[in-house]
Amino acid sequence: MAEAGSPIVVGFDGSPDSVGALDWALAEARLRGAPVTVCHVDQPSAGREPGTQDGAAGTRDDAQALAARADAVLAESRRRAARLAADVEVRSEPAVGDAAEILVQAAHGAELLVVGARGAGAGQGRLLGRVSAHVAQHARCPVVVVRDGAVRLRDSAANRGRIVAGVDGPADRGKVLSFAIQEAARRGGTVHVVHALDEAVLQAAPYAGESELHRLHQAAQEAFSAQLAPHAGQHPDVAVSVKLIRGGPGPALVEASADADLLVLGARGQDPIGTALLGSTDQTVLYHAACPLVIVHDER
C-alpha cells in the first residue's frame, strides 16, 4: 500500500500517448495532493549495453546520445508540467535498460503507475507502448493506461466525475469498487458498475417467457446490488448504479466509457486483467475505450 506523500509515477517518452499519460497524471496529482515522478526509459543500441567492450568510443557515443535524448525528453515533460500544473511537485528520473522492468521497479511504493497505451516505437529505442501490458500485470500499484485520444475526448467534454467499474467475480468486487468509489469521491462523481450476468441463472429456465426472464434478471440485479452495499458504504455520498449484461462485457464497457472519466478493472492471476472481463476482449477495451483504463491489483 502506498504511504502518504507517495508519488504518481508516469512513463514518458514524448509520444502522443505518453503526453496524454503525463497530462492525466498531473491532473490526478492535483486531486490527491501527490507529487509526480516522470520516468523516461531508453535503451542502448541493439546488441550492446553501456559499459561493454565493443569499442570504448562507440560506447561513449551511445551513452552521450542516450543522455542527451533523455535530457531533451524530460525537459519537455517539465515544461509541460509547469504550464499545466505549476503547483504539482514534479521529479525526473532518466534510466537506461528494459522499460518494463524499470517502470515496475520505479512504481514500488507509488500511488499509481501511469503509461501510454503506445509509445514512440522500438525503432527509436523507446519501448513504453510495448510494455504497458507487462506493467499492468507486474506492478504492485494500480496501473493507468492512457490513450492520447481518450484524454482529449475527456478534455473536450464536461467533467462529469463518472467512474465505470467492470466487476467480474467476488475477488474483483472489493479492490475494484474501493478504487472506483474513492476516485468518484475525489471528483464529486458517481460509480456505474457493469457486471456480466451469470448465464446459469437464465439457462435454468430455458423455456421462460419474456416476463419471467425479466423477473430473473431483476432478481439477479437486486442480489448483486446487495452484495455491493458494504463497499458502497465507504462513501455514502457517492451514488452507485448497477448494470447487468448478457454475453461478453467488452462492448458494454466501451459504450459505458463514452461519458466516463475512468474505466476501472481488476487484475487476477497471470492474466493482466480478469479473463471474464477482458480475455478475448482486452484489445477492444484497451484501444477503443473513450477514457483512461485503470487496472487494480490485490494488495501485495
Q: What is the CATH homology-level superfamily of the largest domain? A: HUPs
Number of strands: 10
The major beta sheet can be summarized as:
10 strands, mixed
CATH architecture label name of the largest domain: 3-Layer(aba) Sandwich
The first-level CATH class of the largest domain is given as: Alpha Beta
| Quaternary | single chain
- Distance between the terminal alpha carbons, to the nearest Å? 8 Å
Describe what this molecule looks like in 3D.
- This is Universal stress protein.
- Residues 7-147, 161-297 form the UspA domain.
- With 300 residues, the chain is α/β, with parallel strands linked by helices.
- It has two domains: 8-152, Rossmann fold (3-Layer(aba) Sandwich); 157-296, HUPs (Rossmann fold), CATH 3.40.50.620.
- It is 43% helix and 18% strand.
- The chain contains ten helices and ten strands.
- It has helices at residues 16-32, 56-84, 99-106, 132-138, 148-155, 170-187, 199-203, 210-232, 250-256, 282-288, and strands spanning 8-11, 36-42, 90-96, 112-116, 143-146, 162-167, 190-196, 240-245, 262-266, 293-296.
- Strands 3-2-1-4-5-10-9-6-7-8 form a ten-stranded mixed beta sheet, with helices on both faces.
- Helix 2 (56-84) links the parallel strand 2 and strand 3 (90-96).
- Helix 1 crosses helix 2 (56-84), helix 1 crosses helix 5 and helix 3 (99-106) packs parallel to helix 4 (132-138).
- The relative contact order is 0.14.
Fold topology:
Elements: E1 8-11, H1 16-32, E2 36-42, H2 56-84, E3 90-96, H3 99-106, E4 112-116, H4 132-138, E5 143-146, H5 148-155, E6 162-167, H6 170-187, E7 190-196, H7 199-203, H8 210-232, E8 240-245, H9 250-256, E9 262-266, H10 282-288, E10 293-296
Parallel strand pairs: 1-2, 1-4, 2-3, 4-5, 6-7, 6-9, 7-8, 9-10
Antiparallel strand pairs: 5-10
Helix pairs in contact: 1-2, 1-5, 3-4, 9-10
